[in-house]
Amino acid sequence: MKIMINILKHISRINLNQDNKIFLQELFNHNICIKSLINLALEHGAAGLLFYHLKNLKLTDHLSKSDFSTLENIYQYTGINSLAIMAKAYEISYISANAQIKTAVLQGLSVIRLYKAPGLRPMGDLDLLVSPFDKEKFISCLSSAGYKAVYAYPDLLTKHGILIDIHTHILNLDRIETRKYVFPKDLTPMLENSIPFFNHHKGLLCLNPYDNLTALCAHALKHSYSRIIWLTDIYELLLVLCKKDHNAWELLVKRAGLWHQEKIVLYALILVENLFDFNIPFKVKNDLGINNISFIEKFILNLVLKGFVSNEICIILWVCNIQGINRKLRFIMENIFPGKNIMEQIFSRDLKKTGLKAYIKRTVNTGTLIWKNLFSALRFIVK
Q1: Number of helices followed by number of strands (H, E) in the chain
Q2: Which pairing describes strands 162-167 and 153-159: parallel, antiparallel, or unpaired?
Q3: Domain 92-207 maps to which CATH number in 3.30.460, 3.30.1050, 3.50.40, 1.10.357?
Q4: Vertex 321, ends 214 and 359: CA angle to 5°?
Q5: Among 142-151, 208-217, 342-351, where is mean pLDDT lowest?
Q6: Closest alpha carbon to 27 in 47, 46, 8, 49
Q7: What is the spatial distance between Cα 238 and Cα 52, in angstroms, rounded to a whole number?
Q8: Is the pTM of this model over 0.85?
Q9: 8 A C-beta contact, residue 114 and residue 240
Q10: Which residue intervals of the chain bear CATH 3.30.460?
Q11: Is the CA virtual torsion 232, 235, 236, 237 positive or negative?
Q12: Distance of CA 125 to the CA centre of its chain
């Protein structure tokens, strides 16, 4: 597993340095399972990058016809899907402009132009940010344009096989309201500071680059850093910002502070620094609070760097960022027992689990999950 994680570190970037190239050229001297490597890269959103680099280094001859075909198909499908999502974004841009609704792209689409080809960066859906006050109007406009709501998920719409995920907050406060203790509730300044996503068009917006970097760091943590492509996004955006702006680091610290995301951004920078051998100035880490990181935070980040995956990593690190025992307890309780509509989504496939039965099952599942995570982490450390 360690060699597989090491390979991911070397290929999960757009431009390879000399060490990366040498590593990949020597890759086939090792006894590794290519199919397992492809599956791992696919899970981490890096299969397109793997194919791209192997092809550019003329190493695809080492692949079997089946493995080559699998990687090529993934690359082509990713490209087709990305172009289809971009086309839908263009359509929605006109809908937003006509309705005079500020709508910003998030996550994958916000960084897709950093990548050299559409097949390099997979996207599962089109994530959009609107004000909570505009959400119903925006959904109504999309419905009039032929978009249909997905069962049990009213903020998820679809048209021609493309999913549109509508957010009113970076951390989806409508699902877990106490996440406001982690990221401020009012994102109006973020939308107001956005810039056009399509040049000279007043429809879709893109967050200010430094706000977007903060949002990407928060999103990566929300998903417990379970895919390396989210860290690649942060790394590639950092490269562009540092190249374009001589005071990029100062602006990054300033915007992270505005959103009270200093340690959230710091977590991502620590991971990027170690995964991509990218030097983060000590002053930046110091300004973001590296001296205030606890043992448990360092321990978890070290596990992530070694390839440990757990969906509950975000909960622990978020708790470390919440001030006050009462707030911490409220946050933990709401994550275990969210609102009724979220509980219905969790148990949507098990209609028998309603009311008290659902809460009992949730309690049992939580206890089991805690035990499994502790056991997995211990095994991971021992290995």
Answers
A1: 18, 7
A2: antiparallel
A3: 3.30.460
A4: 105
A5: 342-351
A6: 8
A7: 22
A8: yes
A9: yes
A10: 92-207
A11: positive
A12: 12
